[in-house]
Amino acid sequence: MTAVESLTDDLEPLTAEEVLADAVDRFHPRLLVATSFQKEASVIFDMVMKIEPSVGVFTLDTGVHFPETYETWKAMEDRYGVTIEGLRGPRPERLWETDPDRCCELRKVIPLRNRLAGAGAWVTGLRREQSSERRGTPKMDWDHKHGLWKVNPLADWSERDVWRYILANDIPYHPLHDRGYESIGCEPCTSPGAGREGRWAGTDKLECGLHGD
Fold first, then answer.
1. Residues at the annotated binding site?
2. Looking at the 3D structure of the chain, how many domains does it have?
3. What CA–CA distance (Å, rounded) separates 94 from 60?
């Protein structure tokens, strides 16, 4: 068994809070949290602020988010008294209509890669039940694409687990979740739908390129 496999196995029985606390102990101040302002991000943000509020948190500001996404961004900053760093890349006009993969690369993939350079680990809101591509998501694993550890504390959580935590802790969450949007990305490429079926509807595209080798 490799060191990566051993660590992955060791963390599997831990709760989300325990996984995050372990990540803070191992990697802070070189730990970063990526937030999309979706429901999973609300949960992780709340947990991180309770464990170590000085952890760096960033979001990919593509410039074409829903107005409600920016409202949620402000609500989270106001609630916890912190600043969430917005990362921006090139923004070619309406590129999503002709080349959505290139659009994601410029607005998301490149800014993410640049921000993660030099970090020790990053935290995401991936859950196994979100899609077939994410079914094998471990709670912590080596991210070969970016060359650092990737922490997924909610990997084994269900949709019900997420909402139970949000409601129990009275956390701000994205209002579009109440309007049939289960997965929320950029406004031009997102429509209401179960799971991730509302993302890039009518195309073969399933992921924006942030995750995976």
1. 103-104, 186, 189
2. 1
3. 18
